[in-house]
Amino acid sequence: MVKLRLKRCGRKQRAVYRIVAIDVRSRREGRDLRNVGFYDPIKNQSYLNVPAILYFLEKGAQPTGTVRYLLKKAEVFK
């Protein structure tokens, strides 16, 4: 099963996250299938590759709670 979830990057006390499509059994920093977005909680910026996200959602990928919130905020779900 594939999930859309956050992968932590950046340095100490300055986290930024990549939104990735990843296998459920992988760890948080494990190998991802595809990088589909970026989220910076400090600057409150995000970049979403909407066609790639919609592709994975159509294939049955489940977003985590935080990723679902970011997708709703960006109006990917209409």
TrEMBL record:
Its main location: plastid. GO terms for molecular function: structural constituent of ribosome. It comes from the Eukaryota. InterPro entries: Ribosomal_bS16 (IPR000307), Ribosomal_bS16_CS (IPR020592), Ribosomal_bS16_dom_sf (IPR023803). It is found in: Plastid, Chloroplast. The keyword DNA-binding does not apply. SUPFAM superfamilies: Ribosomal protein S16. Gene3D superfamilies: 3.30.1320.10. One of its GO terms (cellular component) is chloroplast. Keywords: Chloroplast, Plastid, Ribonucleoprotein, Ribosomal protein. The keyword Ribosomal protein applies. One of its GO terms (biological process) is mitochondrial translation. Pfam families: Ribosomal_S16. Belongs to the bacterial ribosomal protein bS16 family. This is Small ribosomal subunit protein bS16c. The gene is rps16.
